[in-house]
Design brief:
- This protein has 399 residues and is mainly α.
- The chain contains 16 helices and two strands.
- Helices cover 72% and strands 2% of the residues.
- It has a two-stranded antiparallel ribbon with strand order 1-2.
- It is globular and about 50 Å long.
- The two termini are 18 Å apart.
- 34% of the residues are buried.
- Mean pLDDT is 76; it is low at 1-42 and 228-246.
Length: 399
């Protein structure tokens, strides 16, 4: 979904007799109206960029209420074996890939606007999380598949943000969007734990479902309604592009080949994929009853621990990353250092007490995973030819 020019005002919105109102966005993403008749009010006093940050924060907060407790919901639904849990995780991941390709294709041919995709994401997520409240294995499976198919909030929000900002203000707006998700992940798991413990096991999922509905209402009220402008041109261009390269799957295959176009790029991409695989497969979120069995804590403590770990990662990303990169002598050495630190923390964790886990293992894991991720992503941009950077990043986003 290529971002449209923010100064494109070729279609009228809320036009008068001659359809003369055209929308434009200034450097802060604030909508401006140009019309001889000044009696028409602005659609919203809140800028689209601020609105997107609010929507993303509520969306991520809703997700973070439930995700740390998912394995407890799996257990309550009768999912006991590791193979069943992994099947559910695989279903969700596969649905995400399929949903991204399908929704992206529908958007490219003009069937879905980016604003419509947001509503689809919010309303589909609300239904998915409501099914968790209903309970039952079949409903839980359908819930994970559904949310995987429709959950495109960050992708479409980033696309909309590119449209509402200029090149000079985009980096700041992107930073605010990232900060919104981080703040939500710090607060959400603890709130979910409190709800689970003191209100009831279904309270986090029910609250999340209600927040997704609230997000839909806020998007309808605050987001500009002119996202559909230029859809006909986009549709024509997209159809031409689809005929030329065989569609989304062919495009992804081409992007994937670009990732291995040189030995240097292939080694960095492989390292980045290995890091993603290791962090996902050994993540405590994917290890059912890990905290309960090893440290004897109650299930809702997962939420508190997740908030603590996210807070540590946020502090590292905000204050330590540049200092560590400089002290280690560049990205390559920083990546090697991070790998050794992660290996050491993993070995230490085998016989660590809960206090050692909190005070030593968690901080070291946060620093090592953070410096590995930053270093490898930076190396990708350094060894990738400029003309291929977009293709490589697009392939990594799917992988």
């Amino acid at each position: 979904m290529a971002p449209r020019n923010i100064d494109d005002s070729s279609s009228p919105v809320n036009g008068g007799k001659n359809g003369a109102i055209h929308t434009k966005y200034n450097s802060d993403g604030v909508q401006q109206a140009k019309n001889a008749d000044s009696r028409h009010p602005r659609q919203s006093r809140i800028s689209p960029t601020t609105t997107l940050c609010i929507l993303v924060m509520i969306d991520t907060f809703s997700v973070s209420l439930v995700v740390p407790l998912l394995h407890q919901y799996f257990k309550n639904a009768g999912v006991q074996s590791a193979s069943q849990r992994e099947m559910l995780s695989s279903l969700y991941s596969s649905s995400q890939i399929a949903g991204g390709l399908i929704i992206g294709a529908l958007s490219d041919v003009g069937i879905l606007s980016r604003r419509s995709i947001l509503f689809l994401s919010f309303l589909g997520s609300a239904l998915s999380y409501a099914l968790i409240v209903v309970g039952g294995l079949r409903k839980l499976i359908f819930s994970r598949v559904l949310v995987g198919l429709v959950k495109q909030t960050m992708t479409v929000s980033t696309s909309l943000l590119a449209r509402y900002t200029t090149s000079e203000t985009r980096a700041v707006s992107m930073g605010r969007l990232t900060a919104s998700t981080t703040a939500a992940w710090i607060a959400g798991p603890s709130v979910g734990a409190l709800l689970y413990k003191h209100v009831g096991p279904s309270a986090p999922a029910l609250t999340a479902s209600g927040l997704f509905l609230l997000n839909s209402a806020l998007a309808a009220i605050l987001l500009p309604v002119d996202d559909e402008r230029g859809e006909d041109d986009a549709k024509a261009k997209s159809k031409k592009g689809l005929k030329k390269d065989g569609g989304k799957v062919a495009s992804f295959t081409s992007n994937l080949k670009t990732c291995f176009s040189s030995s240097a790029l292939a080694s960095v991409v492989t390292s980045l994929l290995l890091l993603g695989w290791v962090t996902r497969t050994t993540s405590y979120a994917n290890m059912a009853s890990f905290y309960e069995e090893k440290y004897g804590v109650e299930p809702h403590f997962r939420g508190y621990i997740k908030s603590y770990q996210t807070g540590l990662s946020f502090l590292f990303q905000s204050f330590l990353v540049q200092a560590l990169l400089t002290a280690s002598g560049g990205e390559k050495r920083a990546a090697v250092l991070g790998a050794f630190m992660l290996a050491g923390a993993t070995l230490c964790e085998v016989n660590a007490s809960f206090e050692v886990f909190l005070c030593l293992v968690c901080p070291v894991v946060a620093v090592s995973v953070g410096i590995l991720g930053v270093s490898l992503r930076s190396l990708v941009t350094q060894v990738t030819p400029k003309e291929s950077l977009g293709s490589v990043l697009a392939a990594l986003d799917v992988l």
